[in-house]
Amino acid sequence: MKNKLFLFIYLGCSVFYLFITAFNQEEIARVVKPFLLPILLIAVYFSESFRTKKILITALIFSWIGDVILLFANKGEIYFILGLVAFLISHLFYIVLFNKQTRSKSISNKLSFGAGVGLILMYFSVMIGTLGPKLGSLTLPVVIYAIVISTMLFFALKGSYQWNAIPYHSVLIGAIFFISSDSILAFNKFYQPISQASFLIMLTYLLAQYSIVWGILDLNQKK
Question: Any stretches that span the bilayer, and where are they (predicted)?
Answer without folding.
Answer: 7-25, 31-48, 55-73, 79-99, 111-132, 138-157, 169-191, 197-217
